């Protein structure tokens, strides 16, 4: 029994290490994507696109390790929650890598655009999305479920920010004041796709926080406020 518990513990530690390695790789992709957007740097954008296969390979490796752990050890309680959460987290991290690739594809298409104009539209959204991922990664590294509560409203914030940006773009496109410079409709199309990908990064970062919360406490992060309120009323 002791040997079995030790074996499970070793496999959990190995799985956690692989998750952190994948998280670090996705963090590099996110950071480089941010630089590519801010500087309209095609070289950096292409590097992100080319390195996406490495992230995909890590997802497959972690999936295989997780399924092997489930089959060989049949973990229960907290160990089982961690493995289930790991399977979910790698999906979100892989999708974040995909969104970085999509954004960088837009950067390549916008290489001759005005950097200042682009950042004026998307700068705050870009910062918030990348900050959300860094926060989620910090939670993963520290395994801090309680701090995950700080990200419980992230989903709504991401959507509200995206809607505000798109509404502004539409207003400027439809403006009838000929003394005001209108944005290029093609550029706006690229920016809408870029902003939508940033929103997905932002929201998937919130998903990761939710998986960490579930793995540790066995509860849904989205329902945490209601549960805490009910507990206070019961007390």
TrEMBL record:
Residues 21-106, 129-209 form the PhoU domain. Pfam families: PhoU (PF01895). This is PhoU family transcriptional regulator. SUPFAM superfamilies: PhoU-like. It comes from the Bacteria. GO terms for biological process: intracellular phosphate ion homeostasis; negative regulation of phosphate metabolic process. The lineage of its organism: Bacteria, Pseudomonadati, Thermodesulfobacteriota, Desulfovibrionia, Desulfovibrionales. PANTHER family: PHOSPHATE-SPECIFIC TRANSPORT SYSTEM ACCESSORY PROTEIN PHOU. Belongs to the PhoU family.
């Amino acid at each position: 029994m002791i040997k079995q518990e030790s074996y499970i513990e070793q496999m959990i530690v190995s799985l956690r290490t692989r998750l952190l390695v994948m998280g670090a790789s996705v963090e590099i992709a996110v950071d480089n994507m941010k630089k590519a957007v801010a500087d309209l740097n095609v070289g950096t954008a292409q590097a992100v696109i080319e390195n996406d296969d490495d992230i995909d390979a890590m997802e497959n490796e972690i999936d295989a390790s997780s399924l092997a752990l489930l089959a060989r050890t049949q973990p229960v309680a907290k160990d089982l929650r961690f493995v289930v959460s790991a399977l979910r987290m790698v999906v979100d991290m892989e999708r974040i890598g995909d969104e970085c690739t999509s954004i960088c594809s837009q950067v390549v298409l916008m290489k001759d655009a005005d950097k200042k104009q682009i950042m004026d539209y998307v700068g705050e959204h870009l910062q918030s999305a990348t900050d959300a991922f860094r926060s989620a990664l910090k939670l993963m590294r520290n395994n801090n479920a309680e701090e995950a509560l700080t990200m419980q409203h992230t989903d709504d914030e991401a959507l509200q920010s995206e809607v505000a940006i798109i509404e502004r773009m539409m207003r400027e496109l439809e403006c009838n004041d000929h003394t005001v410079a209108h944005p290029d409709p093609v550029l706006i199309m690229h920016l809408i796709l870029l902003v939508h990908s940033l929103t997905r990064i932002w929201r998937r970062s919130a998903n990761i926080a939710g998986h960490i919360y579930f793995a540790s406490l066995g509860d849904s992060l989205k329902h945490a406020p209601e549960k805490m309120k009910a507990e206070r009323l019961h007390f």
